[in-house]
User: Fold Diadenylate cyclase from Thermophagus xiamenensis.
Amino acid sequence: MTFLEIRFIDLVDIFLVAYLMFRLYKLIKGTVALNIFIGIFSFIVFWLLIKSLKMELSSTILDNFVNVGVLAIIVVFQQEIRRFLLLLGSRYNLHNKFSFERFFEGKSRGAGMMNIYIKPVVQACDYFTRTRTGALIVITKNSELLDFVHTGELLNAVISRRLLETIFFKNNPLHDGAVIINRNKIKAAGCILPVSQNMDIPKRFGLRHRAGMGITESTDAVAIVVSEERGRISFFQNGRGEFNISVEELEKRLEAAGLTR
Ligand SMILES: Nc1ncnc2c1ncn2[C@@H]1O[C@H](COP(=O)(O)OP(=O)(O)OP(=O)(O)O)[C@@H](O)[C@H]1O
Assistant:
């Protein structure tokens, strides 16, 4: 008789759980959800310990907590679960991965490159920094962000520097909210984005920056924010932000993100 028999599938199992825990940790790192997660984890360890010591009374009480625990976790982590599923859906969007359009684009320009005219975007951001015009521009990659597009005004317009400048002009009714660029079109303006709960964002940044970070936490899009107060550019990708970058750096970041032509 062997004491511990480890099959290949057990190793796969352990690896899978470790990977999911790692992804979960990355998703909730820097948010209050991490503290709740640590609390739940400690509770489970404590519960297992009590069970293994066969402490009947404590174990009966804790068993009742655990029985309703799954429901409680769904309620407490409602936002995180939603973000996690959104992330899975947008990262592995089958429609986009196998569309004919992408197939032919891939052949003509090399894999990973998106059909986005970044020059007018960069030029408009340059103008925004000089004139201290607040702006929030989201550029989609695989996921088209239709849920968010529909919260604003549908434009479907060719990307142009002057159009972007007009949209974010202070007296324009569309200047509030985000512009979403999808492929080579300004898809919509005045869009409402999810606001990040990340506590790592410096306090001086407000909702515009949090919205820029928020959309990149749950999708594969990138976001550019120009601050109205300071005229500084920030760039967000995968839920991480780089603050106060130059126009040249912005162009490089967009190219590195595969958004070039
Ligand atoms: N959830 C959101 N989705 C899209 N846009 C938003 C959202 N929340 C705020 N905004 C935009 O941000 C503007 C307010 O920005 P706020 O002053 O809080 O941002 P900030 O990060 O401090 O940037 P700034 O330096 O430009 O003031 C709003 O007028 C609106 O246009």
